[in-house]
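#structure-requests
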Amino acid sequence: MKKIVVFILLIASLQLSAQEIALLKYKGGGDWYGNPTSLPNLVQFCNAHVGTKLNTKPATVEPGSTDIFQYPYIHMTGHGNVFFSQEDAENLRSYLLSGGFLHVDDNYGIREYLEREMKKVFPDKELEELPVNHPIFHQTYEFANGLPKIHEHDGKRPQAFGIFEKGRLIFLFTYESDLGDGWENEEVHHDPEEVRLKALRMGANIIQYVFEN
């Protein structure tokens, strides 16, 4: 019965707030607030190029709050520790299984903490690397080689990992790419225009995929 109620709540919320996205404020001491200009810039790009009408000021939500059910796409980033309480984990699980989507972009250093905490959310699921033919790389913008490299950290190739439920991608982890840095204002990292455009286009693909699936 609880899952049915949560599902009804999510559907009703998405009908009311289908054009809003949110940033996840998590516990643990990691800088969940990193890259403050990234999401607003991504929203502006999506509204201009892929036909969305997103609220230009993304919301901030906490993993244990029912507020998360208002948003079809929730973004998470940071460098450090992440902690989900059991209540947080159960709420996130209900959100994701009911039609929500969580995208975590590693701003460098979050992977070990994220993998530990996602085991609380889905004890029986593993992160799976997305193949280059996954539809998320082939929306308005074509990324034939998969996730693009935006910033270099450890000389590793960029990878996109996912968690699936009945064939549906419900969780995306972008690693060794640093999309969020590419979404930031130019003066923050002084990335060339072609690098920022590559990051924004991949971000737009993710948003478009979420809203259409």
